[in-house]
Amino acid sequence: MATLNQEQPGAVEVYAIKNSDHIRDETFRALFLTLSPERQDYVSKFRRVGDYHRSVLGDAMVHRVLREKLGQGRNHIEIIRNTYGKPFLKDYENLHFNISHSGHWIVCAVSHEPVGIDVEKMKAIDMDIAKRFFHKTEFHALLNREPSARLSHFFDLWTLKESYIKAVGKGLHLPLDSFALELKEGKWAPVVGESGETYSFKQYALEEGYKLSVCSTCQHFPERIRFVTAEEL
Hints:
Blueprint: E1 13-18, H1 25-33, H2 37-43, H3 49-70, E2 79-81, E3 87-89, E4 96-102, E5 105-111, E6 115-121, H4 128-133, H5 136-143, H6 147-168, E7 183-184, E8 187-188, E9 191-192, E10 198-204, E11 210-216, E12 226-228
Parallel strand pairs: 1-12
Antiparallel strand pairs: 1-5, 2-3, 4-5, 6-11, 7-8, 9-10, 10-11
């Protein structure tokens, strides 16, 4: 697996792995054994096989990327959570990561600056959800779009806003309607956080029917996603 971009120090890196029927059971068992006892206990409680598979692949991918970056063995990497539930590396305050999954995709982003990532498989939704959760200016902009374009725009907004609150690290404690995103000249405008940091965004084409957005205080995003296989982990 390739390491983080060395040409641009601090640049964001985006990785993705697909939960495929072609991944052998032996591979999942081997990856499960690499998890910490706490994570083994956690993922073992999933009743749905898909949830179990996504968690195992996600954990394995994050640890592989972090090991490559830090040059450390798995036993020297400890992931803990802040008071809002966001995972981070113990003893490595200058290395940030975030993970998301939906459908059969698991994605993660890594950077030396705060970063958040969100992937969503698009499905039919009631637009009242936007009225309830989005800022009023976003909701009105959504309604002003052609009906055929609203679903795509809804999931653009949803993943962008989720990536932002994950980058900030406050999760549900930062309501989606507490800030507004806007398009300026075809690009999503940066957002200034509570402490004055500027958060930038980038979206990626993952697969038809999916939306993927990344947010970071770092402005250097890769042009492409780095796809990983279960066998590489």
